[in-house]
Design a protein that fits this description.
This protein has helices at about 1-10, 15-30, 35-45, 55-75, 90-100, 100-135, 140-155, 160-175, 200-220, 235-245, 250-265, 270-285, 295-320, 325-335, 350-385, 385-405, 410-425, 430-460, 460-465, 470-505, and strands at about 180, 185-190. By secondary structure, it is mainly alpha-helical. The chain has one domain (about 1-490). The termini are far apart.
Length: about 500
Amino acid sequence: METLGFMAAAFSPMNLLLAVLGVAAGIFIGALPGLSATMAVAVLVPVTFGMPTEAALIMLGAIYTGAIYGGSYAAILVNTPGTPSAIATTFDGYPMAQRGDGDLAVTLSTLSSMVGGLVGALALLTLAPLLAQIALKFGPVEYFWLAIFGLTLISALSEGSTLKGFIGAGIGLLLSTVGVAVVGADIRYAFGSQFLLGGVEIISALIGLYCIPVLIDLVATPSAHLEPPEEGRGVRFNESLGLMWRSKFNSLRSAVIGTIVAILPGAGGSIASLVSYSEARRTSPRHERFGHGEPDGVIATESANNATVGGGFIPTFVLGIPGTPPDAVILGALLVQGFRTGPEMFTTNANVTYTFIGGLFIATLLMLPLGLLIGRYAFKSIVSIPKALLVPSIAFMTVIGTYAIRNNPFDVVVMVVLGVLGWVLSRYGIKASPIVLGLILGPIAEQGFVQGYLMGNASGSVLTVFFGRPISMAIIALTLIAVFYPLWRARRDRIVKNSNEEPRHEH
C-alpha cells in the first residue's frame, strides 16, 4: 500500500504538467533527425537542478519516453530514423507510407509504443531487483557474442542478398575502428587528422547514411514523395486497434524482448528492435511480406524499443550501470541531486523511485492522445509540403543536427561523405542498416573480444573463455539460428515452389 501511495504522488498537478510537457517535447525532438533522445535529455538536465528530485526524474523520463516514440515519425514518413532505435521501423513503416498507409503506420506505432512502454514500466516496478541479477552474469565475452548476434540479425534481415547484408555489416565494422582503440588506445586509420581521433560519430553517420540518399532520390525523381491519404480517414484508430488485436502476441512478445535486452547495459533499443523484428518475421505466416510494408514489422519494432525505456532503468537504479545512453544522463542527474543508486533506491529512497515509476506510467499513457494528435497533423503536413520546400528543410535539419552533436564542422563533412557512399552502395543492393549497426556494435564487439582474449591468455585457455560459459553458448546458438534459418527457409520455399510448378509443366 505504501508503494501505491508513493506512485499516486505522480498525479499531482505539477507532475502531470511536467509529464505532458516532457512527452510533447520529446516527440518533437525525437522526430527530427539528429536530435536524439540522449541529446533531448542532456539539454534538459540543467533545467531540472532546481526541481524536487521526483519532478526532475518525471520530466526527464517523460521526454525520454516521447523521444523514443517520436523517432518513428521520421522513420515512417521520410525513411530516416529520428533515433537509432527506430532503424528497424524503416523496414516496413516507410513502404507503408509509400503506398498511402502512413497514417495507419503512425497510429500502429503509437499503440505499439504505449504497449511496449507499459510492459517496460511494469517490469521496472515488479522485477527490478531480480532481473538486475541477470545483467551481473554478463562479462566481456557475453557482450562480444551479443554484438555478433546483433550483426547477424541485421545482415540476415537485409533486403535481397544475405551476402550483401554481411558486406554492409563489415563496412560498418571497419568504420568503427577509425580513431583511438577502445582497449589499448592505439590510433588507427586517422590519417594524421585530429578530427578522426574521436572516430566516426554514430549519429552523424546515421543521419548521413539515411538522410542523404533519401534527399538524392527526392531530387532525382519527379513523382510525389508520399501518396496523399484519402479524405476523412483521420488516424484510422479502429483499423489500427483491429491489427493490434490480431498481433497481440507479437506486440507482447516484442515488448518482453525489449525489456530483457534493455537490462543488458549497452545493448539498447537498436538491438532490441532488431531481435523482436527477426522473431516476428520468423513466426509470422506472412513472413514474405516483411520489408514490403507489413504492419507486424512496425508493431514489433515499436513495442520493443519503447519497452527499453523502463527496462533500461533496472540496471541504472539497482546496479548504477546505465542500460542505455539516456539512462547515463539521467543517472548523472540523480548523482547531482545527491542520490546513490543501489538497493537503497527501493528502500531508503523508495518515495522518489516509486513516484518516478508512477510518472513513467503516466508519460506512457499520455503518448496515446498526444501521439495521435501530433501524428495526424505530422503526416498530413509532410505529405502536403512540396519537394522544393521539403528537401531544403530536411537538408538544413541534417546539417544543424549533425553539427550540434559535438559542435564540430568535420562531422558535417563525414555525414555528407557517408551519405553519398550510402547512396552509391544502395545502387548495388547494400543497404544502410547493416552499416549503421556495424558501426554501433563494432566497439562493443571489439572491447568484449580484446578483454576476453586477455582473460583467456591469463587463464591459459582462450577457447574456454569464449566457448565455455553457458550464456555464451546460448547466444552462439541463437546467432547460428539467425544466420542459417533464413537460408534454410529460402531453400525450403524454393523447393515448394518448384514442386508446385512441376505438374503444370507436364500438361
